[in-house]
Amino acid sequence: MAIRPLLSRTLGLTQTLTHSHSHSHTLTQLRGLQTFSLPDLSYDYGALEPAISGEIMQLHHQKHHQAYITNYNKALEQLEDALAKGDSSSVVKLQSAIKFNGGGHINHSVFWKNLTPVSEGGGEPPHGSLGWAIDTNFGSMEALVQKISAEGAALQGSGWVWLGLDKVSKKLVVDTTANQDPLVTKGANLVPLLGIDVWEHAYYLQYKNVRPDYLKNIWKVINWKYASHVYEKECP
Amino acid sequence: MGSCCYSPSPSSSHLLATDFFSWGFKSSKLPFLQKRRFDRSQRASKICGYYGLRTPPYKLDALEPYMSLKTLEMHWGGHHRNYVEGLNKQLEKNDILYGFTMDELVKVTYNNGNPLPEFNNAAQVWNHDFFWESMQPGGGDMPKLGVLQQIEKDFGSFTNFREKFVEAALTLFGSGWVWLVLKKEERRLAVIKTSNGICPLVWDDIPIISLDMWEHAYYLDYKNDKGKYVNVFMNHLVSWNAAMARMARAEAFVNLGEPKIPIA
């Protein structure tokens, strides 16, 4: 069981991290409407250093992701109200808030699982079927890394860069989405295997405006085991 | 480019040098003019223009403690400078986009909604110039005279305007800007938000004040506390003097009301 380092205790946090790999979203039932809550990380905030600083991980998880969840829950509650009243214009008006905050929750939940400390296999390239698929689709692991890093660096504004699987054609794709749009907005059959957050909040405190450096270093803590796991589930 | 272009400031043309005029331009002593870069290696037949990075009208640490020196150095010296250099690099390979002032370049590269690759850099250069000039040390407080009158006319009260402005800033999804603009068609002030690098010039509206809501603008100083950043901007940074100058110029292009005809 990983116990929080001293830093977090002085901040008054008593969260103990567990290595439970059960459901990622903790749902609670409230008047029939499911509300979402912040999933735990399976590693300490500082465990991804020096690739990603503990300060960023803490802010990213406790502030940004939490804000998306809070606003998502709020929007869902308002949606429920609007649906009950048959208030179509409110229903439609809420869609952008749901897409943004819900997308933020989805994306970040995947992101935390895409990262793991070096000691737990972070950065270790995938073996097995995903490794083969990468070589087939992109030529080599290096080529894939190059492509993802290049697309991530070229993204204007805020967004994500993804390695996805088209579960119908069984092909791997590299794509980007803007703001908090989840990968499905780029293709209904796309399943995210790996997503990298290129919003400035994901790297600014450490890398400032040098996004390419962030993209170079994050590969050291990428959890290919999780990506392989998702891939094998879709392509048995 | 014979169209009536609104020029937000007298010397908004950053156009430094073209190969056409082979003058040895010495750097002017005026505080806000930047170092001029002059590429002498161009062959006589090639025409090209370069834009320069304008310095903000105050020292980089003048906005402390509301916007730190570190942020200014990073934001102006890093991001803004990258946009300028990126733009120049793109223009090197482009023969058509020549001789425009910065606002003309923004409108042309926007291409009526189908932006050219140069748009992002051009627009962001313009946006950041406008942003630095929208702030001043000892800013904030309230507008006076004509600007205040117009705000009260179009929003009901200054408080109402401020609320709308802050709300727009906090409900922006992703990266973007919040603006107080003078709408040419509707002939009134409005608060609008734009994504990424879009700026109201492309719709022929006249910007009066802007606020950068890209995370790089506030993250070093305020981390994720957008609310604090926006309030600090309204209370301590926004330059109503700049707004007044811009309104005055805008009134030459937009008929805002009944003329005051002097009685003989």
From TrEMBL, chain A:
Outline the extent of the Manganese/iron superoxide dismutase N-terminal domain: 35-115
Its Enzyme Commission number(s) read 1.15.1.1
Print the keywords alphabetically. Manganese, Metal-binding, Mitochondrion, Oxidoreductase
Q: Which reaction does it catalyse?
A: 2 superoxide + 2 H(+) = H2O2 + O2
Q: How does it assemble?
A: Homotetramer.
- The residues listed in the UniProt record as binding Mn(2+), with positions renumbered to this chain, are 60, 108, 197, 201
Where does the signal sequence lie?
none
Family under the similarity heading: Belongs to the iron/manganese superoxide dismutase family.
The listed locations are: Mitochondrion matrix
Highest taxon in the source lineage: Eukaryota
- The segment(s) forming the Manganese/iron superoxide dismutase C-terminal domain are 127-228
Q: Give the PROSITE patterns listed for this entry.
A: SOD_MN (PS00088)
Q: What is its main location?
A: mitochondrion
- Its protein name is Superoxide dismutase
Q: Where is it found, in Gene Ontology cellular component terms? A: mitochondrial matrix
The cofactors it requires, by name, are: Mn(2+)
InterPro entries attached to this UniProt entry: Fe/Mn_Superoxide_Dismutase (IPR050265), Mn/Fe_SOD (IPR001189), Mn/Fe_SOD_BS (IPR019833), Mn/Fe_SOD_C (IPR019832), Mn/Fe_SOD_N (IPR019831), Mn/Fe_SOD_N_sf (IPR036324), SOD_C_sf (IPR036314)
Gene Ontology molecular function terms on file:
manganese ion binding; superoxide dismutase activity
Its biological purpose is as follows: Destroys radicals which are normally produced within the cells and which are toxic to biological systems.
UniProtKB/TrEMBL annotation, chain B:
Cross-referenced InterPro entries: Mn/Fe_SOD, Mn/Fe_SOD_BS, Mn/Fe_SOD_C, Mn/Fe_SOD_N, Mn/Fe_SOD_N_sf, SOD_C_sf
Record has Magnesium as a keyword = no
List the cofactors: Fe cation
List the PROSITE patterns hit by this protein, alphabetically. Answer: SOD_MN
GO cellular component annotations, sorted alphabetically? chloroplast nucleoid
Q: Give the UniProt keywords, A-Z.
A: Chloroplast, Metal-binding, Oxidoreductase, Plastid
Which GO molecular function, any one, fits this protein according to its record? metal ion binding
Enzyme Commission (EC) number: 1.15.1.1
Query: Where would you find this protein in the cell?
Result: Plastid, Chloroplast
The residue ranges of the Manganese/iron superoxide dismutase C-terminal domain are: 147-245
Q: Does the keyword Plastid apply?
A: yes
Q: Which residues form the Manganese/iron superoxide dismutase N-terminal domain?
A: 51-135
What family does the entry list?
Answer: Belongs to the iron/manganese superoxide dismutase family.
- The protein in question is named superoxide dismutase
Q: Tell me the organism.
A: Quercus rubra (Northern red oak)
